[in-house]
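Lab manual, section 2.4: Encoding a predicted structure.

Procedure: take the sequence of the chain (309 residues), apply the prediction step described in section 2.3, and record the output as structure tokens. A sample record is shown.
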Amino acid sequence: MRRDNTKADVRLKDFWRDNSRFADLFNAVLFEGQEVLKSDALEEADTDMSGVIQLKQYEESLVRARDVVKKTAYGADFVIWGIENQQRIHYASPLRTLLYDGMGYLKEYNEITRHRKEDPEPKTKDEFLSKMRKEDRLHPIFSITVYYGEKEWDGPLCLRDMIVDMPEPMARLFSDYKMNLVQVRDSDKYTFNNEDVKTVFDISREFFEGNVETVKKRYKDKNLQPELIAVIGKITESSFLMQKGARGKKVQNMCTLLEEYEKKSIEKGIAQRDRELILKWTRAGYKTPEIAGLLGFSEEEVRKVQAEK
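Recorded output:
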């Protein structure tokens, strides 16, 4: 299937903004299917992770925005959860994840220091240096990168994978940073409970394997919302499914939809073969009327194809 260089668009972000889907992804990937993260506990969080890094006289602004971010509150404390959508393999993904998480911690640190700056209580010398109280704590951030590509991920999975070879004594001491990666193409190893997540991953995975007949049999009695059809189309880069999902206003039967998809694919294939024959016979010296007669087209249709070469 055709793939492009664009990053996952707003359609995929909207899909994961749904709390039940969002929670199910984290529960399946991080907690082996257990319902640790509750969908009704999720709240929208700011996706902007931009901040300023200051080291004595050095200062640099970093602009970072995550795809989907939510938080869960536990009394006065909270946890940040983030999803990054990736349609192509990125060979610096662990570093990007580290930066996103690091900027999230920096953002909270800056909020703490602003608050402490207004605090009239005296500070120790060490607290004055760090601009934090000894008891101040940051809140945990958990991130998942969802890779939608048809090709198997051959990039790094942790920061260590991006580092040159080191002698064993150094390697043991290296502070690694793991990336939580989900590949649609092997997502069957996870236990998803949300039907939307399960359906989107299952159909997309079978499409990558070319198993359209399997999808037709498995979903012959299944009706899908237009949103899900469009998301599957985006993941598999099927313009047919994207258009059907974008234009649809009601649920559609997946089996009927795929039969139409196959029919259009066959028609497109035949049309392409006809164009190739017209150009081939033109190069071989056949006259336009002869080609039109052999293929059953009008001379005007043949000339139009000949003009495209």
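Check your result against the sample. Strands lie at 42-44, 51-55, 58-62, 68-74, 77-86, 141-147, 181-183, 223-224, 252-253.
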